[in-house]
Structures are given as C-alpha cells and as structure tokens.
Batch of 3 targets.
Target 1
Amino acid sequence: MANNDTYKRKHKYLDKQISNLEKHNSYNRTLISNLKKKKLKLKDKIISESRESARRAKYNENEYIKRALSMTA
C-alpha cells in the first residue's frame, strides 16, 4: 500500500509541474509531453496495484471461506 501512496504523491507532483509549465512555459512542449507520459505511467501503476490488491483480498476471502467450511465438514 505504501507504493500506491508514493505513486499518488508523484502523480500529484507531476500534475502540478505540468500545470505550471503550461501556464508559464508553453513553448517547451516536449518537456510537457514527457511529463504527461510519466504521469500516465504512474496512473497505470496505481490502477494495476489497486486491482492486484483487490484480487489478493478476494483470494484471501475465498481461502478463509474454504477453510471454515472444511472445518465444519
């Protein structure tokens, strides 16, 4: 979960940098474009980690149910 928070902080930081550059330094489109690509990669990591943690939680829940049912049988 700590990685996810780190990714979110980096994503927010990049967003602020992009906004600042677009307001005050619009001639450097290459830099802005590269920052936007980094931001998208971070967003993908955030989404994939949240999906992975949801998958793990579901797996753990199913394992718990299986064990509980096997104890009663």
Target 2
Amino acid sequence: MAKAKWSDVEALVKPWFDQGMSPDRGEMIDLAYEKDANDDVIDALDSLNGKPVPSLDSLKQQLEANGVLG
C-alpha cells in the first residue's frame, strides 16, 4: 500500500481542527470522499480507530504509529 503525504492529510482536515472540532474516522473519511482526496489519504484515514481525534498533532501521531504516512 502506498503511503499518504502528511501535507495532503493536513490540508484536508486542518480547517476542522482550527474550528476546535474533534472529528472521528468516519467523518474524516466522508470529508475525504466529498473533497475527492486521493486514495492514499483515504486509506490512511481508514487506518484510524473510531474514536474522535482531539488535535491535528494527535492525528499525525496516530497515522505515523499506523505506518501510513510517507
């Protein structure tokens, strides 16, 4: 599986975190499809558990731990 670029993931979800939201896996995947994100970004977000993500830093840490960022 190809790995997602953090810059692509960040560009997609940063506005939500800037608003103080804590989106969960499903919400971020829905947004990715809505914004026609590339498959690597969708696959990376799909690696998350179902819990809300409290911050952009936390999202990056989770994706790095899952080995889906390149």
Target 3
Amino acid sequence: MLCNMNPVANTAQKETYIKCKKCDTEVFCLTKGDLTPCKCGAISVDGSKDLVRVLGNPEDYEEIQK
C-alpha cells in the first residue's frame, strides 16, 4: 500500500470523518497519535478535532463533515 500523509484541516464546528471508498467504513479519531484503520485496511486516520491525517491513497477516501 502506498502511504500518503494528507492533513485535512477542520475549520468548521462539525466533526470530520474519513470514509473509505473500498469498504464504506467511516473512520473518526479523537486522539492524536492513535492510528485508526478502516475495516479493509486501505486507509488509516490519525488526529484530533483540529487536524486529521489520513494514510492511504487519496483516491481511496473522501472527507465527510457531520
């Protein structure tokens, strides 16, 4: 798996979820340094409410505001 660290700034009051396009898992991480993978392992999320880092191919995920 190619890993790209892509920070996603959360400037809105909403929480940022990252959705894996391969397994449709929505991943949310509250603790910085706590790497949370999706069900299939294509992406992993690390971050907090202010900054979310996604490891994985950019075409394998999308950002969702809730």
